[in-house]
Amino acid sequence: MTFKQIIAGSALVCGILLALGIGTRAQQTSDPGSRSEPGPGDSVSTTDGAPVDAAVIPADGFTFGERFKIYGESFIHPQSVIGPALGAGIGQWRDTPHEWGQGGDGYGLRFASGYGRSVIARTISFGVAAADREDDRYFPLNEGRVWRRTRHAVVETFVSRTPSGGTMPAISRFAGVYSAAFIANAWEPRSQNSTGDALERGSTALLSSVGWHVFVEFWPDIKKTLHHGH
Fold first, then answer.
1. What's the rounded Cα separation, in Å, for the pair 129 and 63?
2. pLDDT tens-digit profile of 88-102?
3. Looking at the 3D structure of the chain, how many domains does it have?
């Protein structure tokens, strides 16, 4: 087993074990400072950070049409471009894969690959979540200590809500990012199309979701700070 496979596999196992542990809770009532359901006028976010009106789409269930609307709108959300753009920039800096070279053409190929994986991951996640009735949106705490909110953002990456208000492993997210990572082997050059490379891509995508959730959690505070600074 290569080093890439060890790292990627370890990240996956840790995520699944964490999700299974959190998923045993039937209700999120142990922390009196957290709200398991959004209140009137609260804004929640999809896994992509897109704002959703909680009064229109309740947390305890979606119709297929509501799910499809969120799925469609996710492709015009900034994260759908920012993620692949940053990933392409890192790949350009590392010259990975080297077969794609440098310059505008190289960056374009890397961006197209990242965006393609994003489209595939979102589509698979949408289908799985609709089938098992997951609610994979991210619900920010928007209050409390920094560590508690950061932990919330990390944990919520690995769990989804159930229609009854409990939690379960975020099967749709795992299925989406890792399926897309392996499907991408079809167009990745030989130096980047092994099983280890696919596991690394999937784990990187999963960890980037953690980073995005942390950003969404603290973005209101960042905006307030920037506003008061002017």
1. 12
2. 999 999 999 999 999
3. 1
- If pLDDT is split at 50, 70 and 90, which confidence band does 4 have? low
Residue 43: count of CB within 10 angstroms of its CB = 14
Whether the pLDDT of residue 224 is over 90: the answer is no
Q: Give the count of beta carbons closer than 10 Å to the beta carbon of residue 223.
A: 10
Which domain range does residue 56 map to? Answer: 3-229
More confident: 61 or 62: 62
Using pLDDT thresholds of 50, 70 and 90, give the confidence band for residue 177. very high
Q: Are 209 and 176 in contact (CB under 8 A)?
A: no
Dihedral, 96, 97, 103, 105 alpha carbons, nearest 10 = -140
Distances from the Cα of 152 to the Cα of 18, 43, 162, angstroms? 12, 16, 17
CA distances from 227 to 44, 145, 155, 215, 230 (A): 22, 21, 30, 17, 6
Q: Taking a C-beta distance cutoff of 8 angstroms, is the pair 160, 170 a contact?
A: yes
Q: Distance between CA atoms of 162 and 159, rounded to whole angstroms?
A: 10
